[in-house]
Amino acid sequence: MKRFLFWALTMALFCTLLPTAANAQTNELIFDWPVGQTNGNDVVPGYGFEVLQSYGNHYDCIDYDNGEWVIIREVNQFCSNPPCYYCGRFHGDKGTPEVTGYGYRVHAGLDLVAEDGGSVGESVYAAADGVVDCVETPPNLDYPAGVVVVKHTLPDASNLYTMYGHIDNIAVSETDDVDRGDLIGTIADQSLPHLHYEIRTFDENGIDLCAGDGYSQPGEDNPNTEGYRDPAATYFDEDHRPELPITVTINTDTANLRAEPKIAGDLLTTASEDMRLPALELAADADGVSGRYWYKVRVDQANEGYVAAYDVPGWSGDILAVERTRPDTIDPDNCTCSWGVDSNSSPIPDANTFCHFEVCGNDDQFYRCNSWGWSALGKVDNTDCEMPEPLDMNCTCYNGVRYDGSPIDPGSTYCGMQVCGADDQYYTCETGGWAYQGGGPCAP
Q1: In the predicted model, what is the mean pLDDT of the chain?
Q2: Is 287 helix (H, G, I), strand (E, B) or coil?
Q3: For the segment 380-395, what is each residue's pLDDT rounded down to a tens digit?
Q4: How many CB atoms lie within 10 A of CB 18?
Q5: What's this model's pTM, rounded to 2 decimal places?
Q6: Given the DSSP bridges, would you call strands 433-438 and 123-125 parallel, antiparallel or unpaired?
């Protein structure tokens, strides 16, 4: 496997100091994931966690009087105005439910769990700088474990509040100042251990004050109207993140890099777990799927593509790629590093480097571009860094047609490229042309 070749100044090779902060990004309040695990020497926000239940999920109907409730979602005789999330109640053995009107509730936050299933005891961190507004613990509230709410002041003097639910070992008290990344507590042991995380425009709500309701009021289809905000959308919003470019780390066993920011986009190559890639921009899903975000990344000077950063289009999903570190400030124009050579033996232009840009050296160690030049970071989790194989462009395959009937440009084909054909079967591009793989139907 080809590696990134890397040449650096002798002093930089022995430098192990973390980079100094660059010029501050102004008029922003940076938010992070409130959970994360260790990757190498860094606790990476979001790393090692997935979404158990997303923002805006329709929950069950409310059982007002111990009846047997059902959710009527489709257009039928009981519901003529979509989206038709009405509730109905069965009486005895009757086969037709009595329609009782709106009664469903919508999830007002994110439920986050550790991917390895061991959520109990995982650390919970402040998502942004702020002041602890409220702390409640049982038996003073009817809620599984404790709750903390932190107040965050935005540049326009308005406030947002983050709420951390189902936690214990609480490490903060009311009126404490907290910085982004400070320990709040740990995930408590309950029937299904998870962190319930909310962002909202109010501090206390509902019977349990700090805890709030966790769901919208009966019949409200959009939690935003009640002052809740989608935590994922807030995280990816340009007003709450460091300026691009940044360096991201792959959070799954492998990640597909595609030609377009879409699930069905042509596969360019794959990146492996713990790999760090320079992210040039954040892109919306090309198919318009809500709850799916992409990074445009550079594998080397010859290969750029899109890797999914967050994919929760339904009930649950994954945080797929996150920054290895989240420095307070990133100044893309303040760091220029010379003498880089990529896996294709092509020099890395100085203009392509930026603060915190990271590459894999020819000794299988990571290097970072700082204001003083390159510095050695070493291994990640005692593992050598490996870059994906560059695309082998020695294969050209003609007359390809995708499952949707669109022709495949021979100029975009390469060795190992796999597509879903018009017959819903897989084909791989090889030196002799398209090779039938079967395995269909494969159309998404």
Answers
A1: 78
A2: coil
A3: 666 667 666 666 778 8
A4: 14
A5: 0.75
A6: unpaired
